[in-house]
């Protein structure tokens, strides 16, 4: 009987044989991909992220590309969506302008993204995750959290071994590779999956969490973007280790709710649960125009009014959504959907509108549109929506203004207050088509 669950014994990621010795290669199959960790059989939160996702799908479907540098991108955005690992060696990165990428790697094969295909592949992989546990929380097209606590009796194997088998299964059946991170919480599982990409498998245990985090930059903390990192830098804080020496009170006094997050996450304290997708998938509003519209100026007031509708429904149901989805239908009925994930769920018209606006702006290319829709998905109702963002004072002011407008509308009806974006601008343009909630 293999010494499963005894942390003195690791196992081989390839053949899963238990490793009884300290050797660097598997004593059964010779593979060097061995896993050993004192908490190996106790950790049950996993994060999975596909390697160079779009590029890997294209390579799988055209074996001639296998050893070539491949860039997915181009089209109207003119930037790199993803680069395979060969292209990355030449310095090509996501979000790089295409012309720069081709300067760095002139012999790269450039492929336009086929979003439908990637979404289908993403769904197939998610289904394989759901074979392991119902607690699967997708974060984007190619990544998800899994909570495997309590599944050991079902699988007759601890989570780490289940995940190693999963990653082998994805390679075998889907022809794609993934990287896996395992820990006791979401924060560290996600960091772990990024640790030794591609084909990675990393483990961060509770014992080592604080030391592991100490020399890492603050940007590793969920919610610390460029702007906030710059604020912290001005205050002399660059590493997570520095946060570990600070108390919660002063951190909250300086940075509000974010201060609490800094305090907790820097110490590896993260009790967020893995939340499977919610029943109601999205809340949206859309409208078909009397006449097709091509100009941004004409679309903006409609977008604003639809954002307010969506926000009103979210507030009424006391839910919030983390992904903003923009929908456009062109005169020839071609559908475009674009989405963007926010750092926190929102129910504010202002955030929905501003995010929708930045997505819409990019789509203005002379096409005449017959329909515009805006909505949010990734719904949640746990009160984590719209933390007051002390970094962006203007955003806080707008949120406060919006609450005031909501109160007035609550008293005097929906048309009591109109914002500058919509005032007098849209009545004549839109048909009275019912909106939808999926
Ligand atoms: N993506 C994009 N634009 C970006 C970043 C990502 O269109 N700026 C798309 C393309 C990626 C997919 O999302 O294939 C997944 O994003 P990841 O950040 O997980 O990147 P990859 O999977 O490509 O690479 P990695 O191996 O680093 O995960
Ligand atoms: Mg990825």
From TrEMBL:
Q: Which GO terms describe its cellular component?
A: cytosol
Write down the EC number.
Answer: 2.7.7.7
- What does the record say about how the cofactor binds? Binds 2 magnesium ions per subunit.
Whether Cell inner membrane counts among this entry's keywords is no
GO terms, molecular function: damaged DNA binding; DNA-directed DNA polymerase activity; magnesium ion binding
Question: Which residues are named in the active-site annotation?
Answer: 143
Site residues, Substrate discrimination: 54
According to UniProt, the reaction catalysed is: DNA(n) + a 2'-deoxyribonucleoside 5'-triphosphate = DNA(n+1) + diphosphate
Q: Which cofactor does it need?
A: Mg(2+)
Q: Which CDD domains match?
A: PolY_Pol_IV_kappa (cd03586)
Q: Which family does it belong to?
A: Belongs to the DNA polymerase type-Y family.
| Subunit structure comment from the entry | Monomer.
PANTHER family, A to Z: DNA POLYMERASE KAPPA, DNA REPAIR POLYMERASE UMUC / TRANSFERASE FAMILY MEMBER
What is this protein for, i.e. what is its function? Poorly processive, error-prone DNA polymerase involved in untargeted mutagenesis. Copies undamaged DNA at stalled replication forks, which arise in vivo from mismatched or misaligned primer ends. These misaligned primers can be extended by PolIV. Exhibits no 3'-5' exonuclease (proofreading) activity. May be involved in translesional synthesis, in conjunction with the beta clamp from PolIII.
Output this protein's name: DNA polymerase IV
Recorded source organism is Phyllobacterium zundukense
């Amino acid at each position: 009987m293999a010494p499963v669950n005894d942390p003195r014994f690791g196992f081989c990621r390839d053949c899963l044989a238990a490793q009884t010795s300290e050797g660097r290669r598997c004593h059964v199959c010779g593979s060097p991909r061995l896993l050993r960790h004192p908490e190996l059989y106790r950790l049950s939160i996993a994060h999975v992220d596909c390697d160079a996702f779009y590029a890997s799908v294209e390579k799988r479907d055209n074996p001639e590309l296998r050893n070539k540098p491949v860039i997915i991108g181009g089209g109207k955005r003119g930037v790199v969506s993803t680069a395979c690992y060969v292209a990355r060696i030449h310095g090509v990165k996501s979000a790089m302008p295409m012309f720069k990428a081709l300067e760095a790697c002139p012999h790269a094969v450039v492929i336009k993204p086929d979003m439908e295909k990637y979404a289908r592949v993403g769904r197939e992989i998610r289904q394989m995750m759901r074979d392991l546990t119902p607690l699967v929380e997708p974060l984007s097209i190619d990544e998800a959290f899994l909570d495997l606590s309590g599944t050991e009796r079902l699988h007759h194997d601890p989570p780490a071994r289940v995940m190693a088998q999963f990653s082998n299964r994805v390679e075998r059946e889907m022809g794609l590779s993934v990287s896996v991170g395992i820990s006791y919480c979401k924060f560290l599982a996600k960091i772990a999956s990024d640790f030794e990409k591609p084909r990675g498998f990393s483990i961060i245990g509770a014992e080592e969490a604080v030391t592991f985090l100490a020399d890492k930059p603050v940007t590793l903390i969920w919610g610390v973007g460029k702007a906030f990192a710059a604020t912290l830098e001005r205050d002399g804080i660059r590493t997570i280790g520095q946060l570990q020496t600070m108390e919660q009170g002063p951190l909250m006094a300086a940075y509000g709710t974010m201060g609490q997050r800094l305090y907790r996450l820097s110490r590896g304290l993260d009790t967020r649960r893995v939340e499977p997708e919610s029943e109601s998938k999205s809340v949206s509003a859309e409208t078909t125009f009397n006449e097709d519209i091509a100009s941004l100026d004409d679309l903006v007031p409609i977008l604003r009014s639809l954002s307010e509708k969506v926000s009103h429904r979210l507030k009424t149901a006391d839910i919030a959504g983390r992904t903003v989805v923009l929908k456009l239908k062109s005169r020839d009925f071609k559908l475009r959907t674009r989405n963007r994930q926010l750092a926190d769920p929102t129910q504010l018209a202002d955030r929905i509108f501003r995010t929708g606006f930045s997505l819409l702006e990019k789509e203005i290319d002379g096409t005449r549109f017959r329909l515009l829709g805006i909505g949010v998905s990734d719904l949640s109702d746990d009160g984590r929506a719209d933390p007051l963002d002390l970094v962006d004072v203007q955003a806080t002011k707008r949120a406060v203004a919006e609450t005031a407008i909501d109160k007035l509308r609550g008293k005097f009806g929906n048309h009591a207050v109109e914002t500058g974006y919509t005032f007098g601008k849209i009545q004549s343009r839109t048909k009275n088509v019912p909106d939808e909630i999926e």
